[in-house]
Amino acid sequence: MSVSPSTAEPGLGLYIDGTWRTTSETLPVVDPATEEVTGQLPVAGPDDLDDALAAAARGFAVWSRTAPRQRADLILRAAQLMRERQDEIAASITREQGKPFRQGQLEVIRGAEFFEWDAGEAVRTYGRVIPSAPGVRYVVHHQPIGPVAAFAPWNFPMSQPARKVAGALASGCSVILKAAEETPTGAIHIARAFHDAGLPPGVLNLVFGVPDTISRHLIPSDTTRLVAFTGSTNVGRHLTGLASDHMTPVLMELGGHAPVIVCEDTDVDDAATTSAIRKYRNAGQVCTSPTRFFVNEAVFERFLDGFVKRAEATVVGDGRDDGVEMGPVANDRRLAALGELVADAVAIGADLVTGGRRIGSTGYFFEPTVLANVPDEARVMHEEPFGPLAIVNPVDSIDAAIERANAVPYGLAAYGFTNRADYVDQLVDRVEAGNLSINTLEASLPETPFGGVKSSGYGREGGAEGLHHYMVVKNVSHSMTIV
Fold it and tell me: Catalytic: 173?
């Protein structure tokens, strides 16, 4: 049924054609710190999805013909509302995803920055004029591709949907956003902000439900002109297959297994502390999380000692409590997966230096964990743990480190610590990753392009490149009569 926006907010609902609606079928939303059910999320049925597709088609007809400056101004108004509501949004992120409240606030700010950057890019989607003979003009236009089916993950409930929505709206596209059922409120707040900013009906639609059911309904539709997805490589392959059957282009930001190369010339103590802090951010549930540390054997013991000390000092608890640095993982499935990876590694000779166990019996808390001297055949060397688990292994040279860094099918983010120019050149030239950070663990900013190589995806979000996938190139050849 449809309900007015004022009575639906800030509750859980679908947002279709400018109105909020609920359904009789629901899914529970669970607080990972307490395991309590905090709400019931409406599930979109076939009729809801058909309504969303029809609304997106109508919305695209309006939005694609809206001047870029007007689109930018509206996006900026919505971003300002998100900034003003950051505490409310951050509280919902902590409740549904578990990260500390301060990290939730920073996520809201980052999400607003994505909108602000892409709003600026909306007025810079330049074409070009190609030199030609007299009486002939060749003009290249960049035009919005059409309605977008966007799929966002649970680990960043506000900033990940923001990336998809920002790129689509700035380009002149309408969008149907399927956000994560585990963490719905961040996306709901985005829809709420755009509704309040005056976005025309149908330009942004928000649905939830059974992921496979929704993808099989939206992707084959003739209305859908682009599929944009952030999530696991396996699901990305599945969605790409669905899209390829209909010649629908895709934008895929998929899993990673980020290596960190620590050279002998670096400030080892600082590298260890910085790395441990970033590793356990968001409980390690980050596609760019530094995970496989390859440390020169000359500084290996010192690095490992510093890393372990900082890992053991990490304050784990409910993200609403003061001083907490790491909250729970997302669900009991993550607990089981982490436990299995640790057991497998230890069974074939890895050293469990610290952690490796669930904390308590209520809430999905897992100890900050460090494995050292892990054999290459261990599952964790090839499978992204997506949790608070780090691998620290010695290497005898930068050549060995780069070889092992590249020895997985993933290539999203990679990191290096060195002050030697020749080492920097080797990292830049030889490490297989879409994002390489040296002496910093920051992999993604609104103004820089973000995406992977190999099995980590296709296309880029952010930066001047961020709108490319949301647009098509049209070449116009015009022969003019010369009087």
Answer: no
